[in-house]
Amino acid sequence: GGKGGLGGLGGLGGLGGGKPSEPDPVAKVGSNTDVAVTGTESEPTIIDGDVTPGPNNSVLQTGVVTINGGTTPRTEPIELPPIEVPADYPSQGSVAVEANATVFLPSGQGAYNEIVVPARGRLEIHGPIALTVNDFKVLAGGALHLDASLGPIEMYVTNQLWVAQGATLTAAETPSTQTSLWVAASEWNDRNADMILDPPADLRATGQYFGTIYAPHSPLTIVSGFEVFGGVIADSLTIENMAKLHFDFALTKETGETLSEPSMLTWKMVELPANPLVKHKANVKDLMKQLGMEPPYAAEAHDTAMYHIAFIGTDGVIYAWHGLEANFDDSKVLVEICSYYDGQAKPLAWPMSPKSTLVK
Questions:
Q1: pLDDT higher than threshold 60 for residue 148
Q2: Which of 122, 191, 235, 304 lies 20 to 30 A from 337 at CA?
Q3: 28 touches 251 (CB < 8 A)
């Protein structure tokens, strides 16, 4: 959680997906203040992982609650980093979905002033796509569907995100790292003219969401009937009765050179091309022996690149030579001016005189 607490954790129903498959709990719940967890006999709260309150704060448990991890407070508060909203996406205007109609957003990058999905309207967002939206509204009875099967989905909301109670949010079952919702909005507004200010982000849909949600300036509520597979970070987070949040352990894995071993997501059979190598079906090593070819050892095998060198010879003359390095006689070199392989130029080691002449 952000600056606010993680409150109202009643009836969480399996944070981390129920019984953990790993020997250690895998879910992570945290806040910079207190964490309140409540449950009942009929709707117990189960957290398969650690619950980490803020410095000098506590985990407040009420009713039937099971926490399979630790509850030690963090030593320092976590500062939520700001969201860098892309500013160079091409403008796409506004999208107003009509009732009883389905609209597909075009793939690629796009900046939208407003997207509105009314009752009985449906908006489909398929990856790969990256979009910024000033106002994103899905009204009661409207439907939003996300599919990152063919590429990632990145959504940035800059003014307000309003997915009203009674709306549905569904998604194709894809890795949670493929879909991200970034809510940069921070202003509270009275969006329904009831004289009460509404938060920058209000996500009260039912359905399933696979991905991450980051709203550092707004409270969020995961309502009953909504299930999140991934991670949620907000200024404060409330999880209602019968809502579910499954923490994706892949979100904690390091990136870069320390990536873990890849895992297979899907596979399909493809027909091999009809070329002589495929048709022959011979062992490559045996075939090379039949052709009288002796393959080099792996340590000696390398791509052949042309070698270029300019030098002063032992006779005092400046030369330029091009060819395979194995064919070059370096005993003729008195001073090397420069040398490089194709695509790997080196700077001059000795500036040539304007009066010098290169000869072959």
A1: yes
A2: 304
A3: no
